[in-house]
Write a structure and sequence with these properties.
Order of helices and strands: HHHEEHEEEE
Strand content: 25-35%
Oligomer: single chain
Largest sheet: 6 strands, mixed
Radius of gyration: 29 Å
Shape: elongated
Structural class: alpha+beta
CATH class: Alpha Beta
Number of helices: 4
CATH architecture: Roll
Helix content: 40-55%
CATH topology: Nuclear Transport Factor 2, Chain: A
């Protein structure tokens, strides 16, 4: 029995590269079918279905994106990760540290919060309260840091602009009493 060299030769007898090369050459030599207009309705239904399926999760994601951003901010606060904390801020963000309130650009806010986390290295962050009203989210939490038994009170305000949730305000205070 002689070995056949056509595209139907079992792959176990030849290397994969040789088999694929011969198979592609065989398929390229086949006549190409022409597209008929009768097949277009068959293609339109799956394309329309994919478009509709793609739009539904987008709407659901936009509705709960504020809550998801609060979660990411909480994780970033606990880790002291300034780039994740300020990853989705407005062009200018208001930061208040122990009563000193100022508006900063994203780049300035990055340096301010890096300095803050150097002095107050976080151990744990927890939310006490979260609420949504209209185009905004408000959250209140506690930042436990290494140098103290007493946590810091943190207030966070998010606002939706142009379908995108942004960190607009971050306030840190000593916890009263």
């Amino acid at each position: 029995m002689g070995a056949r060299n056509g595209p139907d030769t079992p792959r176990a007898r030849r290397c994969t590269f040789c088999y694929l090369t011969e198979r592609l050459a065989y398929l390229a030599a086949l006549p190409r079918p022409t597209m008929s207009l009768r097949r277009l309705p068959c293609l339109a239904a799956p394309v329309l279905l994919l478009l509709l399926m793609g739009s539904v999760p987008t709407v659901a994601y936009a509705q709960d994106n504020g809550a998801a951003l609060l979660e990411r901010i909480g994780v970033a606060m606990e880790a002291g990760d300034v780039s994740r904390l300020l990853g989705q801020t407005a062009d200018r963000v208001e930061i208040s540290l122990f009563g000193e309130r100022r508006r900063y650009s994203r780049a300035q806010a990055l340096y301010v919060m890096q300095d803050f986390f150097k002095g107050y290295a976080p151990e744990r962050f927890t939310y006490d309260e979260r609420s949504q009203s209209g185009q905004g989210w408000f959250a209140e939490g506690r930042l436990h840091y290494r140098r103290s038994e007493q946590p810091l009170r943190v207030y966070i305000r998010l606002q939706q602009r142009g379908g995108r949730w942004e960190l607009r305000e971050l306030m840190v205070e000593n916890l009263e009493g």
